[in-house]
Amino acid sequence: MRDKVIFGTAFHTPARGRLEVLRDALIVVAGDGRITEVIAQGSGDHDAARARAAEQGRLVELGAGEVLLPGLVDLHIHAPQWPQLGKALDVPLEVWLRKHTFPLEARYADVAFARTIYDDLVSGLVANGTTTAVYFATIHMEASLALAEICRARGQRAFVGKVAMDDPDQCPPFYRDENAATALDEMRRFIEAVRAIAPGGDALVHPIITPRFIPSCTDELLAALGRLAAETGCLVQTHCSESDWEKSFVEQRFGRSDAAVLAGFGLLRQHTVLAHSNFVSDDDLDLIRARGAAVAHCPLSNAYFAEAVFPLREALDRNVRVGLGTDISGGHSPSLLDGCRHALMAGRMRQGGVDAGLPRDRRGVADARITVAEAFWLATAGGGEALGLDVGKFAAGCKFDALRIDVEADGSNVRVWPDLDEPEDVFQKIVLNAGRANIRQVWVDGVCVGGTAGDAGQRASVSR
């Protein structure tokens, strides 16, 4: 893959809450997809470097109305639930799972069905700007491996998890692992198969150990998966303290919180991704931070199934790693930019309160809201840090995962007024109003993999 130099204005949030505007910068991307240099406008080598890149045919210039954003990192997606997007959100979580979700996920025993759905899912998420995705698949080996293969072919950076769930008292007979030993054996084989897709230390797609959540797994399986994580070095993902029902179930079974139970089984590890975590205590947050784990904050699905709001500000103030998740299909939007908006709204409603019958000083939680820059950091660099990846910002050594945004695209809801809007205003307007139509190009690892421009390359056709 040939190196390139991108010229134009870029926005990123390299640290929580800190927006940097790189006006007319040059971003130099090497053949391995990593950024080697960011040359600021006005620096001594800027004009000469731009001229050299143009002469060598390596210069990519952003057009009028175009800016660059880092690619979006979605920490929590249920891939098989893609056909269910926007459906059946009117019942409690435990009913939703048994009546709607488990029957749908059971259909992925049909690999042809799985490939059709997964190909549509991955292309749709890439078009929405998701350059890194963390997926729950199903219990099915072949279908889960097909998802990993599709992610690599489509050029999306991904962590794919074959789901483990073996408790006969909590899982339906038509959709569960036969027993803990079978689940463990298949998880081990799945890890080996995914790693064989793209061997080497810099693979685009990775396996991730995925106990669905504590209620669906026996003690034997949870302990075995913890040992497997230590043996293989794989990341772990699961649900944590998502709803009143789930929290109460775990406490009645173990007498401890989800976080404490997961830690006891060796599953709360460096870069473990805990989806939701709405009902965590201060002690849980401290434990999550101490173990180096992270929370996937899913504000939209929490509104439907948690009936509670994750204490985001408290987690951030305690230096817990946090990113955003769409939680498809518990969340009905595939856009992580929507996730930013939902996180902003959740924080504001938590601070302001929702019961108008209470006095203002008793209605909400003080200092709970976040800024637009913080929300975007959660969707980019924050998500990258949660996974231990150098993505989500434009800096030397980071992977060039990026979105070319056209604020003047047909159908755009982003309106920019040059006489009224500073660059910081344009950034906020993009985060709050941009959609799929505005995403002209999507780059992952320096390769164009999607966007409305129509000239996207496919990772499968690129030799590394």
UniProtKB/TrEMBL annotation:
SUPFAM superfamilies: Composite domain of metallo-dependent hydrolases, Metallo-dependent hydrolases
One GO biological process term: guanine catabolic process
Pathway per the UniProt entry: Purine metabolism; guanine degradation; xanthine from guanine: step 1/1
Any matching Pfam family: Amidohydro_1
Catalysed reactions, as listed in the record: guanine + H2O + H(+) = xanthine + NH4(+)
Domain Amidohydrolase-related: 67-447
Note on cofactor: Binds 1 zinc ion per subunit.
Keyword presence, Metal-binding: yes
Protein keywords: Hydrolase, Metal-binding, Zinc
Listed GO CC annotations: cytosol
Stored InterPro entries: Amidohydro-rel, Guanine_deaminase, Metal-dep_hydrolase_composite, Metal_Hydrolase, Metallo-dep_hydrolases
EC number: 3.5.4.3
Enzyme type, top EC level: hydrolase
Similarity comment: family membership: Belongs to the metallo-dependent hydrolases superfamily. ATZ/TRZ family.
Role according to the record: Catalyzes the hydrolytic deamination of guanine, producing xanthine and ammonia.
Name of this chain's protein: Guanine deaminase
Organism: Kumtagia ephedrae
